[in-house]
């Protein structure tokens, strides 16, 4: 006989969680197993573009600030000269010794934003930055003569050398050498100080057209020489020497970027006109660039990393000046603390006094 199946008992013993899948609201839509990420969207791609387009943000905010305030007071247009010359040299260096395309693109973007920044800064340049309003500085030849007369009795432009060699001693030679090092350091400080006149009014011209004519002449001549030596004549020995010179010079000039701003902060003794966002972008750019050069870039010379570290040290010093003049200098000015001696404000005679002490 057929066995009678108790349907009610069977239904009670069925586990509702096993083998039975009830339809849900989401089951009526296409199922997505994972989030789709394009193959080209990698961390390397993001880092490369961040490196390339960071100048647009850091210097773009400065352009906006100058236009809004209608004055470039507190901003040194020497920054534009430094970055434009350094970027042009880096482009020339790429034609001789190809490096990371990302850094080449950064140089091109830097040239673009610096041209806009220079145009805006010249449009709202204060009268205090005009060449006629700047302080003169002693010539190198005059400083050499003064230092020579102090240590040696012989006129360097006459022929009484026998008595000179007889009276010569090591202390005078060491003292003169040390003084000339101090003189050269003094001249370098004055050159990067926008408040002092330079030879031929370099980058202090009253005529705005001279800025653009110089940049055009420099870019065309630099690129023509590079293409002629590296591509047309194909002189290997001269090409390597030229590449090392151009690359080192471009990196050195770029690493000196903070010096004009340091001079302006020392002169004004205030951070008015210098935007915190620019300082933050410099420091973040330094960290990003050093990280990229150390861990992400390929075919990079050690020079890139060395000069990047040097520039970061100067930017950190600017950060120190920003905090000092914004929060502590007012207390010193009120007399609570003794005033500090600013080296770039001293004349060469005052530098001698400090040196002798």
TrEMBL record:
GO terms (BP aspect): multivesicular body assembly; retrograde transport, endosome to Golgi
A Pfam short name: PQ-loop
One Gene Ontology cellular component: cytosol
Membrane-traversing stretches: 35-60, 72-96, 102-122, 214-233, 245-264, 276-295, 301-325
An annotated Gene Ontology molecular function: phospholipid scramblase activity
Membrane topology type: Multi-pass membrane protein
Subcellular location: Membrane
Keywords: Membrane, Transmembrane, Transmembrane helix
UniProt-listed PANTHER family: PQ-LOOP REPEAT-CONTAINING PROTEIN 1, PQ-LOOP REPEAT-CONTAINING PROTEIN 1-LIKE PROTEIN
Protein name (Swiss-Prot/TrEMBL): PQ-loop repeat-containing protein 1
Organism: Eremothecium cymbalariae (strain CBS 270.75 / DBVPG 7215 / KCTC 17166 / NRRL Y-17582) (Yeast)
Lineage: Eukaryota, Fungi, Dikarya, Ascomycota, Saccharomycotina
